[in-house]
User: Which sequence fits this backbone?
């Protein structure tokens, strides 16, 4: 990873922060995107080599600015990590349509659009790495909109993987289970029993290893992979059993 330019979204959050720490250790040149001013300030204090960028990923103009900043200011993009995202928990009938669309704008469209925008500057050896979720395999009750955004992400990036393979560009999808980050507080109303999870450091390590080792579809453990695929095969029964 040494000397590679990495554009990382969601760097101010739980998993993103850990990915950032590892990238700095690996001596990558990181453009770290988030909205939280305090966390961005912390990034510039703790990691002086990192370029923190404040941007709201719902806004296409700001997405274009992030890419120009990386290309013109840092010298291209070798690795794009689409990590930013959030969940909305509860009965979808109580959610506003605009709020549901905003979630898709961040979780799905910003990843699609950033990928579209960086690909012209990415040469052979480039990597697009996505933090998806096991929920992409088994949607859960009260997570309908979030699950749909992650299924869309899985599906889109599996398809375009084959479109860019010939150019020597790799697409990695990582499927974490429940991770111990502020994600659940932000999703509001999630019962405490659903909140235990793996440490974000593990997700970060697995993602960086996948980039180095050239893996494509990545789970944190054999059991996660088995559960996801079994759940997928069982379909509606698994959704009923798990929720
Ligand atoms: N935690 C889990 O159990 C879990 C499991 C599977 C997958 N994931 C996925 O992992 C990724 C990281 O989540 P996390 O657990 O680390 O949650 P987190 O701590 O809440 O971090 C979320 C990150 O996304 C950024 N973000 C959200 N909306 C944004 C917007 N409009 N513009 C720019 N940035 C925005 C946040 O930035 P600001 O705070 O600066 O706005 C923050 O850096 C997400 O895609 C999530 O879906 C999480």
Assistant:
């Amino acid at each position: 990873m040494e000397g590679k330019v990495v554009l990382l979204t969601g760097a101010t959050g739980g998993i993103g922060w850990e990915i950032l720490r590892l990238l700095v250790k690996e001596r990558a040149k990181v453009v770290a995107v988030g909205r939280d001013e305090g966390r961005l300030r912390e990034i510039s204090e703790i990691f002086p080599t990192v370029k923190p960028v404040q941007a709201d990923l719902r806004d296409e103009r700001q997405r274009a600015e992030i890419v120009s900043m990386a290309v013109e200011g840092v010298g291209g993009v070798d690795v794009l990590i689409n990590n930013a995202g959030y969940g909305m928990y509860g009965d979808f009938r109580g959610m506003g349509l605009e709020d549901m669309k905003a979630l898709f704008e961040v979780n799905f469209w910003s990843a699609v659009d950033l990928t579209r925008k960086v690909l012209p500057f990415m040469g052979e050896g480039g990597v697009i790495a996505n933090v998806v979720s096991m929920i992409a395999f088994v949607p859960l009750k009260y997570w309908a909109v979030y699950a749909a955004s992650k299924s869309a992400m899985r599906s889109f990036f599996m398809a375009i993987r084959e479109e860019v393979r010939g150019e020597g560009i790799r697409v990695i999808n990582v499927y974490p289970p429940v991770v111990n980050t502020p994600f659940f507080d932000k999703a509001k109303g999630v019962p405490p029993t659903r909140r235990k999870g793996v440490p974000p450091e593990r997700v970060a390590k697995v993602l960086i290893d996948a980039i180095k080792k050239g893996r494509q579809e990545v789970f944190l453990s054999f059991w996660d992979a088995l559960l996801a695929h079994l759940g997928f095969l069982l379909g509606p029964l698994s959704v009923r059993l798990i929720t």
